[in-house]
Amino acid sequence: MSDLFLGIDCSTQSMTGLVIDFDNKTIVYNNSINYEHDLPHYKTKNGVYISEDGKVVHSNPLMWVDALEMLLKKLIVSGLPTHMIKTISGSGQQHGTVYLNKFFENVLDSLDHHKTLTTQLKNVFTRLTSPIWMDSSTSKQCEEIREVLGGKEALIKITGSNTFERFSGPQIRKFYQEDPKNYAKTSIIHLVSSFLSSLLLGKNSPIDHGDGAGMNLMNIKTKQWDNKALEATAPDLLNKLPRLSPSYKVIGTISDYFINKYGFSPNTLLIPWSGDNPNSLIGLGATQKGNIAISLGTSDTYFSYMKELSFDLKGEGHIFGAPTGDYMSLICYKNGSLAREKVKDQFQLSWAEFSEILRKTPPGNYGKIMLPYFFPEIVPLVLDPQVFRYGFEEDDLNGNIRAIIEAQFLSMKLHSEWIKEKPIQIYSTGGASENIEILQVAADIFNIDIIKYSITNSAALGAAIRSIKSYFESNGEPIKWEKILKDFLPLQRNELIRARPEFKELYMDMLELYRKYENFKINQEENPEKYRIEFINKYFS
Ligand code: XUL
Question: Are 247 and 208 in contact (CB under 8 A)?
């Protein structure tokens, strides 16, 4: 076996470890811990704690620590020679924050490998649970920060995004306002990514520019903490944040705890972890103009590489740093897999039955339209969840299945219109991308072919690929992204889902209909029922 590279992904519902064998260009390890099933004593549902009104969504940072240790134990049991791992990087669900006291670094520095990480880290948190990206409870703080920074457009030009309920800045402000004592006791605030990176490093790890951009705190042009944004958020915040770093820069070597306990070499290099979406950009090889990625996981995201910085002044999308040092655009939906599952479970279907219904129902769904806000939605902003159905009822099995999938991709197409670089090719990842019928709907709606990957965790794959790039760079043997991606990605591309041109016009019409329904519900515009009847007459009579 040759040089190995490890990527770890801490996502909403699970933690995955993936190892690449560089010379043989293969993935030699790919395994996950599911929080709800493998760590039931944390009592999460799908990895999270949700308040009754659905607005407050937290997870447990100690559970992530436990999952990391469980993952590494599994790695050892698999017989993988951990001492051959040259570099490690990782990926975290974006925006989530971890609040730590002044003992955190000392504890990391003096970890005893005979004890577990959780026993040693249980007293370092000033907030026992971490707000995560699904939280939508900070509208007040979003407004306050936006106002101080000069309104939506000014804010977008500073941080790359409007304030969003799930973003770290508004979440930090809420903690400061609601629990000032524990805010004062907080020495350092990490993202999920930099928190886990700190464990491996044995001291505070920097936040990378990819994930840092999801906080409403980093200046998107200078890639430094923005003083005005920090001041608008909470007092003394600069002293409570780690430094920022490019995603590709080596930050040190692995700490003694992991060397002694899991057999890693003391020379194992570490580079910063990044967000799951920036990692997926690499894991899907979407580093060229016109390459679009859709990730169908707990969140559904639509993102693309961006060479030149440009903004969505309407404020629905975001600009993050890309791990290449450039930029990426992103739109995020909360009604992703959990919403699909709700519909599937309502009718007690298996995924195979769900797919069968998609296969046998016609594009356009006889004019049945759903606005699928099962949970509070990010795009468009819907804080009080409600599902709207036009032309059908809640008990219409076929109607509901097709309607939710069409709604998800019509919404994606609609809300990505601001991205200047038009899609030429779409890459898909995430659990639901295993489902060809779902991807067929997406291909038809976008009228673009979709490349499906066999590895559905492109975030872990992206993290492993990033670590290859940085390893060789730090050894003075730089390899171009194109070369690494060419070597490692074609093997993963296992299916092409072709857009069917015969449905192009139908979906263009349906997109306009969907736009009207959104405007009707969200902006109180005219009821578009007569257009829906026209649509039915044109395609289904
Ligand atoms: C992106 C976002 C989610 C999380 C969880 O802005 O909120 O995609 O990263 O996957």
Answer: yes
What pTM was computed for the model?
Answer: 0.95
What is the 527 CA–ligand 1 centroid distance (Å)? Answer: 33
- Asked, for residue 423, whether it belongs to a domain, the answer is no
Residue 388, beta-bridge partner list: 371
The pLDDT assigned to 403 comes to: 98
Enter the DSSP assignment of 23.
Answer: T
Sort strands 291-296 and 300-306 into parallel, antiparallel or unpaired.
antiparallel
Number of domains in the chain: 1
Supply the pLDDT for residue 41. 98
| Distance (Å) of CA 333 to CA 272, 295, 306, 375 | 26, 10, 20, 10
How much is the average pLDDT of 231-241? 98
131: preceding bond cis by omega (within 30 degrees): no
Identify whether 144 is part of a domain.
no
**Backbone φ, ψ for residue 186 (5° rounding):** -80, 120
Range of the domain at 505: 337-374+381-414+501-540
Query: Are residues 503 and 334 in contact, defined by beta-carbon separation less than 8 angstroms?
Result: no
The CB of 311 under 6 Å from ligand 1? The reply is no
- DSSP class per residue in 58-124: EE-HHHHHHHHHHHHHHHHHTT--GGGEEEEEEEE-SS-EEEE-TTHHHHHHT--TTS-HHHHHTT-
CA distance 48 to 136: 14
State residue 1's pLDDT score.
Answer: 59
User: Does the pLDDT value for residue 492 go beyond 80?
Assistant: no
pLDDT in tens, 372-404: 999 999 999 999 999 999 999 999 999 999 999
Identify which of 229, 237, 328, 228 has the alpha carbon closest to the alpha carbon of residue 274: 328
Q: Is the CB–ligand 1 distance for residue 275 below 6 Å? A: yes
Phi, psi of 307 (to 5 degrees): -80, -50
State whether the beta carbon of 161 lies less than 6 angstroms from ligand 1: no
Query: Residue 351: inside a domain, yes or no?
Result: yes
Residues sharing a CB contact under 8 Å with residue 151, sequence separation 6 or more, in sequence order: none
| Ligand 1 pocket, mutate which of 161, 166, 273 (most atoms under 8 A from CB) | 166
Q: Is 255 in the pocket of ligand 1 (CB under 6 A)?
A: no
Distances (CA, A) of 306 to 239, 302, 320, 346: 32, 13, 10, 40
Give 108-111's long-range contacts (Cβ < 8 A, gap of 24+).
Answer: 108/198, 108/199, 108/201, 108/202, 108/203, 108/255, 109/202, 109/203, 111/202, 111/255, 111/256, 111/257
| Token pair recorded at residue 234 | 């909470």
Q: pLDDT tens digits, residue range 40-83?
A: 999 999 999 999 999 999 999 999 999 999 999 999 999 999 99
Listed in sequence order, the residues at least 6 apart from 513 whose beta carbon sits closer than 8 Å to its beta carbon are 369, 528, 531, 532, 535
In a domain, 355, yes or no: yes
Minimum-distance ligand 1 atom for the alpha carbon of 378 = 7
Consecutive H or E run containing 169? helix 168-178
